[in-house]
Amino acid sequence: MNSASLGWWLHLFRQLRYQFTISWLVFLKVYDHRITFHSGMVIVLLNYIKTNNMTDQKQFGVWMDTKHATIVGNDNTGNGDLAVLANITVEEVTPGSGNKNLNNQKTMLQGKFFKEISSYLENATYIHVTGTGQAQEQFIHYLADTPQFKKTKAEESTANRMSEERLIEFFAEKFN
């Protein structure tokens, strides 16, 4: 493939705004059997797509445990700086009249907690969830079961609680 053809394909990718990047790469292989991908060209295309596509993403970070969540995202000033969007604390379980009621109340409060967190993640394309324990795993499963987040890429890690400034730095490293 010569440089003129490469320019045409890059133009096509710009017009499509990288919506279906992987599908198009497969399409390119099937559409014209004469196209041969050289490893250098594939790397150039993928780097081009990655650098131009990541700026359009809505990225969020969530630090959480079973009782508290801190949500980090773009501060809406347009310059792409990260900021703490919310600190959410789960309601306490009130003692009830039995284990069944207590378990039902815990499940209901956890669902409410997860729903409140996800309300800050509108139109998210990438979410990094970190924290202690298993809360982040449960939250990622909750997101996967929520239609709004079916196509959202979610990753998790483990981290102890940290200051808001350090948390912003932590997520800035994860997003780059």
What does this structure look like?
Helices cover 47% and strands 19% of the residues. The protein has 176 residues and is an alpha/beta fold. It has two domains: 3-54, no CATH class; 57-175, Nucleotidyltransferase, domain 5 (2-Layer Sandwich), CATH 3.30.420. A five-stranded mixed β-sheet has the order 3-2-1-4-5, sandwiched between helices.
CATH homologous superfamily of the largest domain, by name? eRF1 domain 2
Secondary structure class reads: alpha/beta
How would you write the strand order of the largest sheet? 3-2-1-4-5
Strand percentage, roughly?
15-25%
CATH architecture classification name of the largest domain: 2-Layer Sandwich
Our measurement of the CA-to-CA distance between the termini, rounded to an integer number of angstroms, reads 31 Å
CATH fold naming of the largest domain = Nucleotidyltransferase, domain 5
- Domains (count): 2
Shape category: globular
CATH class of the largest domain: Alpha Beta
Give a quick account of the main beta sheet: strands, pairing sense, barrel closure: 5 strands, mixed
Low-confidence stretches: 17-35
Mean pLDDT: 77
Number of strands: 5
Q: Helix and strand string, N-terminal first? A: HHHEEEHEHEH
